[in-house]
Amino acid sequence: MVTATTLTRILHVLFPAATAALEELRQAGILRTKAIERGATAYIAGEVHDLIMIAERALASTRFDTRVAGPDRPVPAVPRR
Known about the structure:
By secondary structure, the protein is an alpha+beta fold. Helix content is about 45%, strand content about 10%. The radius of gyration is 17 Å and the shape is elongated.
């Protein structure tokens, strides 16, 4: 999850450029938006997030599959789409 303000700070670009880039990715279906605090908009790459969650689940199991061997620590829920 990222905001235009965060991109402005990280990439040293102007706010309008960050917003335009994020909107272009949203329109292409790569990102989705979510309203967050103080009227800000967060942009989320759902597929990337799901991939990270699946990898985290796999690494929590001694067999790299929590369906085969239970996790040895708390893990996120399986992504559902």
